[in-house]
Each structure stands twice: as structure tokens, then as C-alpha cells.
Amino acid sequence: MSRPMFDEMNASPSEVRAHYLNYARWLAQQPEEVMASRREEAEMIFRRVGITFAVYGAKDEDGAGTERLIPFDLIPRIIPAHEWKSMQAGLVQRVTALNRFIHDVYHEQEIIKAGHIPAEQVFQNAQFRPEMMGVQVPNQIYSHIAGIDIVRAPNAKGEGEYYVLEDNLRVPSGVSYMLEDRKMMMRLFPDLFGQNRVAPVAHYPDLLLETLRAVSPATTAEPTVVVLTPGMYNSAYFEHAFLAQQMGVELVEGQDLFVKDNFVYMRTTKGPRRVDVIYRRVDDDFLDPLVFRPTSTLGCAGLLGVYRSGNVTICNAVGTGIADDKSIYPYVPKMIEFYLGEKPILNNVPTFMGRNPDDLKYMLDNMAELVVKEVHGAGGYGMLVGPAATKAEVDEFRAVVKAKPDGYIAQPTLSLSTCPTYVEKGIAPRHIDLRPFVLSGKEVQMVPGGLTRVALKEGSLVVNSSQGGGTKDTWILEN
């Protein structure tokens, strides 16, 4: 039995949704060969600029790692102003509560004492960092840059409803594609932006720099900000370099930094320069070989000591991963009520936890109908999409979950909304999601929009770039 679908553009085969009317009229007038040439032009420019995504584990015929161009689709995902206003309020609420939770975990632990989250879910979690206990961070903000994954699916009334699928609070990526997709659309179709009041996103790097400077230690009035990258072989290296360049700050690797007299410095051609804020794109385990992984060459020895004493700010904070673990996700609505005294504006997807015996039984009995995810998995790996899997794959995954039930959660297979997309055979619906980027400094703010990811394979629900997904420009219409 096929699931009902929510089409972002079309209310029915003969009716276009109001916020898409202008665009639909324009699209109907475009000759096929013109759109085809625009697609080729976009691909050529993206390739020339080097907007690629390295795929771990994938090899070319010479055995070298592969870099893929992330496919870009010409048909935008359009969201009307009133929907964005509600979504934005929900995002501010959610990220505020998540930051309160992380602070609570490393300080008073009131939510645990109140019995709302089991202690072992926190203290036995691989993302919990005991080194952060009692550490004071500027403005009590831990996740300065959050990427919240949102999907739309039919609710009980058959209407499209937004749900939060995942919280990415450690080192969320993808914002460079949001910015480059907009730049590309404005280059290819400048007339469209004259006909539609599309809210701008180009000021994101300015907001990001403002956010990073706002959480600088009090030791300086003119903070030096750097972007810390694992290096050019990282899958998101293009983004690291892009954001550093857009903000006008230095892109550094661990070997460029050193600690002296309880401050962090970077090596420059003019001698050492003190660093105040590090926007790190390196995981916790690799940040400081004296504290975490001793073999790491990606971080800086002694960094955590300087951080704990308040002489450098690391964004996002060490230990932030405790709040974006998939086993903590089911408790976020409770966090919002506990810390803010409010009902969640954006709902979670219903979630079964393998650690609960009743949930586990349901998961094992209904695995062929569920999406099952490893709690520490990312990028579309470590998961099973039941309806798209073979019986053998389901049986194999069932055995894995049985062996380590607390390592997995499961969710109903949502019928993600679709958006018309250019594919080999022409225009066809493909499933999409949305990742808005939420910045927390002195205030919580974001640009109107986000990264829309699209599953290019027919029927696929996996939108991740590492799994062959593409991207679209996201338009938030202004009133």
C-alpha cells in the first residue's frame, strides 16, 4: 500500500500551491533546451570552483579517494513567509532548550535529578565529556552553530506538517552549499529574483563572525577568530576554506597552533599571534592529544587546559555532542517543557528506543516497516530503511540490534514531502529535507532558509550527500 505524499509545489495534479504560482508560470514558459544548458553551466561552474564533497571509503579506479560534485537542482524549494515564521520560532525554542540542557548536564544536572532523563543515558553516553564538568563557557552557550534537520510529512489529517528529524550540534556542515546554491540561481536566473520577493541569505558569514566574536573571552576587545580544519582530505574541506575566506579569518590546522603561558597562539609569517575564538571543524576526540586521543595530530596539545581556564573559546563547545546523540533526541520535547515551560512548536518524529524492552520488541517485530538508526551514526550510514531493504538485510540488521539494543533507535518510515526535480527523464517528484542553520551568540538568529537536500534516486528517502543526494536553493518568500 503506497503512502500519501505531500508535494511542496502541487496541491493536486491540476492545482499549484499559491506560493509557487509565480514560479510555476515562469517554469512553464522555459524551453527545455534552455534549462538543459543552464544545468550544464551550473555543473561546469561548480566543478571549476571546486565545490565537491569527499566520499570516505569510495575509491576511483586507481585506488585513490574520490571527490564528487554534489548535484545541484534548478527547481527551488519555496516556503511562504508564515510557515517560515513558525518554523523559526520553533528552531529558536529548540536550540535554546538544547543549550540549557548541555549546561545543566555539566553543572547542576537538574533534569536528571527530576527524573526526566535516565542518568545512564547521559553519563554512559560516548559523547559525554567528564572533562567539561563545572567548566564555565561564555554566555552558557555550547552549540553556537546548530544544523537542525527538518522534514515535512502528511499528518493524521493528510496535511503537510514539519517535524524535527535530527539535531546536529557538534560540527554541522552544509551551509556553504546553501550559499553557493543561491549564488548560482541568481547567476543563472536573475529575472526570477525580480519577480519573487526572496529573502536573502548572503549575510550568513557576517552573522557567523558576529556570533563567534560575541563569545570571545573577556581578555580582549578585538578577538582573533580562526577556523580549525582537519585538513584538505576532510570531506567538508571546501566548506572550511570557504567560510574562513568569507569571514576574512585565518584557516588553520592543528600544527599551526601552540599553547604558551596558558594562551593559544597561531604561527604567522610575522611571528606568533594570540587566538581568542576557534571555530573548530574537528571532533572532540582529536582536539587535544594530552586529554583525548594521544595519537591525534589534528588538534593542539594543551588546548583544553587553556579552554577550561577561559582564555580561548571553542565553537562548538567540547562535549556538545551529548545533546545531538540520537538516544537523547527523544527527550528534547521534555527539555523544552522543563527549561522553558513551553510546549514544543516543532514536533519530534515518534521514536522507539532499543534500550526500552517494549520499544525493542516492537522494533524487532516491525523492522521491515521502520527506519532503524545507530545512535552515533551520521551521514546516512549505520541505518536501515526497512521498506527499501531485502529480507536478508532486515534479518541481518535485526541480529545487530539484538546484540546491542541500546545502540539503536527506530522511527516510522515517514513519507517525506517531495518537490519537482530535474532528473534524467525530465521533471519528477523527489523526496527532500531542510537543514536551517541556527546561530547562538548574544542572541539566537539565523538567515531565512537553509540547505534543502534532495534524494535523487526514485523512491529513495536518503538525502545525504555521501549517499548520492543533491541540493536545491531554498526560497523563503517575504510578505
Written overview of the protein:
Strand 17 and strand 18 form a beta hairpin. This protein has 2 domains: 307 residues, no CATH class; 63 residues, 2-Layer Sandwich (Dna Ligase, domain 1). The longest helix is centred in the first third of the chain and has 25 residues. It has a 5-stranded mixed β-sheet. A 5-stranded mixed β-sheet has the order 15-7-6-22-23. Helix 3 crosses helix 11. It is α+β, with helices and mostly antiparallel strands and 479 residues long.
Major beta-sheet overview: 5 strands, mixed
| Count of distinct structural domains | 2
> What structural class do you assign from the helix and strand content?
alpha+beta
Helical segment count = 13
Q: Calculate the terminal CA-CA distance, rounded to whole Å.
A: 40 Å
Output the radius of gyration: 23 Å
Q: What fraction of residues sit in β-strands?
A: 25-35%
State the helicity in percent bands: 25-40%
Coarse morphology: globular
Poorly predicted parts:
56-65
DSSP summary, beta strand count: 25
Strands side by side in the biggest sheet: 5-25-24-21-20
Average pLDDT score: 90
Protein name: Circularly permuted ATP-grasp type 2 domain-containing protein
InterPro entries: ATP-dep_Glu-Cys_Ligase-2, CP_ATPgrasp_2, UCP005522
Organism: Hydrogenophaga pseudoflava (Pseudomonas carboxydoflava)
Domain Circularly permuted ATP-grasp type: 76-455
Please specify the SSE layout and strand pairing.
Layout: E1 10-12, E2 15-16, H1 21-28, H2 32-49, E3 52-59, E4 65-69, E5 72-79, H3 81-105, H4 110-113, H5 119-123, E6 145-154, E7 160-168, H6 175-188, H7 190-195, H8 204-214, E8 225-228, H9 237-247, E9 250-252, E10 257-260, E11 263-266, E12 273-275, E13 277-280, H10 303-308, E14 313-315, H11 332-340, E15 347-348, E16 352-353, H12 357-365, E17 370-374, E18 383-385, H13 391-403, E19 408-412, E20 418-423, E21 426-435, E22 437-440, E23 444-445, E24 451-454, E25 470-476
Parallel strand pairs: 5-25, 7-15, 8-9, 8-13, 13-14
Antiparallel strand pairs: 1-2, 3-4, 6-7, 6-22, 10-11, 11-12, 16-19, 17-18, 17-19, 20-21, 21-24, 22-23, 24-25
